[in-house]
Amino acid sequence: MTASDTGPALLEAAGLTKRFGALVANDTVSLAIRAGEAHALLGENGAGKSTLVKMLCGLIQPDSGELRYRGEPVVFSDPATSRARGIGVVFQHFALFDALTVVENVALGLPKPEPLGVLAKRIEACVGRYGLSVEPWRRVGELSVGERQRVEIVRCLLGDPQVLILDEPTSVLTPDESEGLFRTVDLLTAEGRAVLFISHKLDEVRRLCQRATVLRGGRFIAEVDPRRETSASLARLMVGADVPRTAPLVAHELGEPRLLVKALTVAGDGSRGSALHDIDLEIRAGEILGIAGVAGNGQTTLFDALSGERTSDPESIVIDKVAAGGLGPTERRALKAGFVPEERLGHAAAPDMRLSDNVLLTTHGDGGIVKGGVIRRAALQARFAEIVKRFDVRFGGRDPKARRLSGGNLQKFVIGREVLREPVLLVVDQPTWGVDAAAATFIRTTLRQKAAEGCAVLVISQDLDELLEFADRIAVMSEGRLTAPVPVAETSREAIGLAMGGAAQESVHQGEGAHAVQA
Amino acid sequence: MHDLTILSAVLASVVAAATPLLIAALGELVAERAGTLNLGVEGMMIIGAAVGYATAYGSGSLVLGALAGILAGTALSLVFAGLAVWLAANQVASGLATTILGLGLAGLIGAPFVGTKLTAVPQLNIPGLTDLPVIGEVLFGQDAFAYLSILLLILVWIGLGRTRLGLVVRAVGESHSAAHALGHPVRRIRTLAVMFGGACAGLAGAQLSLAYTPFWASDMTAGRGWIALALVVFSAWRPLWLLAGAYLFGAVSILQLHVQGFGLGIPSQLLSALPYLATISALVVISALKKGHGAPASLGVPFVPDR
């Protein structure tokens, strides 16, 4: 069964509008999903994709416009109604219960109670049919991100949905896991179900989808056949202009080693981070080292160990020739190191503090802004203004609370705060996670430039394309171990992907595999 | 033989002392597993005690008194539910307000009954079994409240762990946004859980004024609501540990009375504080050993659906 242009729409949104205060999140947006097709919903952050999805499944109500299911108007007053009509959603932030088992989680998504033993059998049958792998009796809190996503998908599938909505499903998966997901999607559409695939990874959309709806600034822009488009033409539709690429590598000399990590071993603490085993790495002034890997393989622990939130043997971490393993974050910052954690709200920035006060969080020890324990407001405001201006941080009001900013703008603020401290070492965890393309490019260019000025930069990222685009060398983290870093020109997506899955422990070298390297 | 009789009587009074704590804590446990931290337990208990006593005194029926206590506790819990669940107010503040309101109202309702007495709720003796030495009176010579508390424990234990409704309650307490996304009526479930907590607290209060000390005094709950709250936390939200905690409290509070009777020269205030100290330190140790069984993840977080 393949989609034809004349095929009837299974689920249709006609002229949906949704306002949040002054913001028009969706402005007369239309979308038609047909049976048997994988339909992509494309758009930058803030284009209104999430709002549209929430209206499609009844989480929020449109202010005007109409939903139609198999041609007849429907009102989804809540998610239960839409699910009863055959619409299943897998959200980007999973709606799972960590403390409960897989079966219990699935049971909660079903309209009728069912003995858990019987349900476990059904889960196993579904898992077999669609090539997913899920163990019914494990606690969800113990599962990896990929496994959690499969739990969500199984939960949806047991409700026998006609339309399955996947919200940025591959952003958390390894390349291998993504392929597995694509096979599942192909099986589902072959059965005549429709899949709405929300993503900003254009290659995947072109590989998987027969149709794509593009949103920009809350408006419907176009419905296209992604197989007939190029990634560049799709990107142009999304952004409305040509997307700038990260400035090409600037040739420069490598200097002194700024960060030396020797046999760093950290015990896991059970809940938050996994353990680290024998990590060795060296970053010299002027280079960017990328660390790839699937979330939950020790990256968070590595970041904490480098930033000083967890201490280790003093000699195991050397920052700019000073043994720093036993020092706390403030003392490490005094060595001119800067740290940007993954979580923007609550880790990099205090959500309910004003932005200008957030500047203080990492600059209080630098002198200049705080003298003799007293905050110098004028100096603080000057630094704040400089961050906002140089890093193009956009927000409403004069000095809002950090939580009011969009993800991209807050990330620009946080990066700017660290960069203006003139660090000799920058450690950045997920620099562009959830940030739109323009801001992401800006952040990468900034980091590139810092490296060119002689800063050593360590970037931890799950986005392989990003690392291939702007890192000098790449190492892969898997189960708390780090492979030896390899120059980007000497490796490939495939080799790194394998190492991410833990297949190759030694290194990600691939002799003649330079074909996949991008600028 | 004489010693055995004393031992039997002491053990029986331990059960009576533990019963109100167990009942109130079970109710609060359900409310907290649904994600609502109701600090109004003390208030709901005392209003249950006052209304239960007044009704029983007026009507002469202990059953009506107990029912009235349950209703009063439930009614007061609705005040909390309205504030904390439907208006998404701060749960700590709402709970404290509920307690203060309950204490004040109970004083008002109870004022005419100061100095009166009731005939206590009778023991439900089972011929033959009650006459067994030592354990006979402990196990089979209790009043209806004690049996009800054990029934309630089994009900909550099985209900939370084994039924669909219990699963939904736990889910709502674990992640209200996920439960909402799956279409479970978060606020309605939380309201019901809070009402169950209120009913239990009201019943526990009625036990105090109808059975344990069958007269009215304005501060007769004496902080038992707070102990019930502490029991819930330190039992790591597990019903069976609640049972252990409640009975430990009951045992120490009876023992210290007997120690006071011996006249060992220990200040009586210190001895009176002993049950509270013993229970909390025991439960702190337990909860430290049982790391990982954390609080319901959404406990105390107001839920506001986005629309």
Automatic annotation (TrEMBL), chain A:
Keywords annotated in UniProt: ATP-binding, Nucleotide-binding
Residues of the ABC transporter domain: 11-242, 261-504
SMART domains the record matches: AAA
SUPFAM superfamilies: P-loop containing nucleoside triphosphate hydrolases
Origin superkingdom: Bacteria
Residue runs in coiled coils: none
Similarity comment: Belongs to the ABC transporter superfamily.
Name of protein: ABC transporter ATP-binding protein
Organism of origin: Ancylobacter crimeensis
Species lineage: Bacteria, Pseudomonadati, Pseudomonadota, Alphaproteobacteria, Hyphomicrobiales
UniProtKB/TrEMBL annotation, chain B:
Family annotation (InterPro entries): ABC_transp_permease
Its membrane topology: Multi-pass membrane protein
Keyword Transmembrane: yes
Transmembrane segments: 6-27, 39-56, 62-89, 96-115, 144-160, 192-213, 225-249, 270-289
Disulfide bond in keyword set: no
Subcellular location: Cell membrane
Family matches, as PANTHER family: ABC TRANSPORTER PERMEASE PROTEIN, SUGAR ABC TRANSPORTER INTEGRAL MEMBRANE PROTEIN-RELATED
Protein name: ABC transporter permease
Organism listed in the record: Ancylobacter crimeensis
